[in-house]
Amino acid sequence: MLTIICPVCGRVVADMEMKCPGCGTDLEAYISLSYTPDLLFNEAAELLLRKEYYAAIDKLAVAHYLRPADKEIVMMMARAAESAGNPMLAMEKMAVLLADDDNASEQAQEEFMRLNTAYEQLEKDRELDKTVTELSGERFAELKDIIKRAFRESVNEMKMEVK
Question: Smallest Cα–Cα separation from 93: which of 118, 70, 76?
Fold first, then answer.
């Protein structure tokens, strides 16, 4: 059972009545709009199953705009961002969730800490990759010089043999 408040007169309208009993306003569009976040959430869940993470995030962003108090939307958006390989966006969504709720669940707090740890590890891995790439570049230059020298030496030896 969906109970809504008429956006025109403020009267409580129950049981999916399409017209407000108080002012007669047609509520069909308003009622369908109230279901839109649920539909978007479900579509996002399907997209996540297909590993279409950014499409899911887009759907969840609209759902969150339409229903900003729904914590499940934000949690799913954070999970989608993490699955997409974007822990910074995931942490941002969890921070929004924690900031908006003074009594944030222990699960949400733990999720934020886990994401923070994952992000820190990702940063360490990126630094390590950068160092390895730089070292590989230096090593590549050294190997290139060695090959050039070896080639010159073999050319010189061939010239000596020809004489």
Answer: 76
CA 54 to the chain's CA centroid: 7
Return the half-sphere exposure (C-beta side, CA atoms, 13 A cut-off) of residue 101.
Answer: 20
Say which residue the tokens 């390895």 belong to.
132
8 Å CB contact between 80 and 73: no
Domain count, the chain: 1
Residue with tokens 């390989």: 85
- What pTM was estimated for this model as a whole? 0.53
CATH code of the domain covering residue 53: 1.25.40.10
Contact indicator for 70, 38 with CB cutoff of 8 Å: no
Indicate the angle between helix axes 71-83 and 87-100, nearest 10 degrees.
Answer: 160
Q: Which of 60, 51, 62, 100 is nearest to 78 (CA)?
A: 60
Give 68-102 pLDDT, tens digit per residue.
Answer: 888 889 889 888 988 888 877 777 777 776 666 66
